[in-house]
Design a protein that fits this description.
five-stranded mixed sheet, 6 helices
């Protein structure tokens, strides 16, 4: 099942993050231990459409569409443009810089949002954005 949405080019990163988490059991358990949260991403594309994905680093170490896994609630929600998410995952910009410039909105536990960086770094090597 692909998580990519053609209207959101950077969404291919969610497939890369998913395969990164699924490929190594020890790494997935480590990511869950360090992340200990459900991260929701709300992306907005150039056409103004919004789409949501989540990364569950609380229990399963899995990625899916929507705000959170069924019956669960996200601990932190990151809202940004598809273009900025692509730059962030590609390592061309940092989350802190986007946040400070108002391009990244964070709802929920801001400190947990900082735990997302290592997971995105792992995806950088796999995602071809």
């Amino acid at each position: 099942m692909s998580l990519k949405n053609e209207s959101f080019p950077s969404s291919a990163a969610f497939d890369a993050i998913h395969s990164s988490l699924q490929s190594d059991d020890a790494e997935r358990k480590d990511a869950v231990k360090k992340g200990n949260a459900i991260f929701a991403f709300k992306l907005k594309n150039k056409a103004g459409e919004e789409e949501g994905w989540h990364i569950d680093l609380k229990e399963k170490g899995a990625v899916g569409k929507g705000d959170a896994p069924e019956g669960k609630k996200a601990d932190v929600t990151l809202s940004l443009s598809d273009e900025d998410f692509g730059k962030m995952v590609a390592g061309k910009t940092q989350a802190q810089r986007l946040f400070m410039s108002g391009k990244l909105k964070v709802k929920g536990d801001v400190m947990k949002a900082t735990k997302m960086e290592p997971v995105l770094k792992k995806a950088q090597t796999k995602a071809k954005l």
